Amino acid sequence: MVSIEEFRKLAMSFPDATEEPHFEKTSFRIKKKIFATFDEKNNHAVLKLNEIDQSVFCASSEKIFYEVPNKWGKQGWTIVELSRVRPEMFEDALIRSYENVATKKK
């Protein structure tokens, strides 16, 4: 299980990361681009993974990682159930999300 405090501490440890509101959620950004959001109501995170990382995480833990069920999911946005995910696995996914957004070419 990952708490919002652990999520926030890890997300804010990345270079140039910022925390900002995003509708009814909390977003974590790099260069104004979202790499993760936290949905307090549903206690889950949404991460921006590349296609390969998304398929690996979703295949390994279908009840923990799954595509957002709309066009956003096809673009790599992936839901993570914070009450079920192991901290090490979440950290790995969050790092990949950050790197995916931070290194994306314009």
From TrEMBL:
GO MF annotations in UniProt: DNA binding
Keywords: DNA-binding
Pfam families to which the protein is assigned, alphabetical: YjbR
Gene3D superfamilies tied to this protein: 3.90.1150.30
InterPro entries the record matches: YjbR-like_sf, YjbR/MT2646/Rv2570-like
Protein name: MmcQ/YjbR family DNA-binding protein
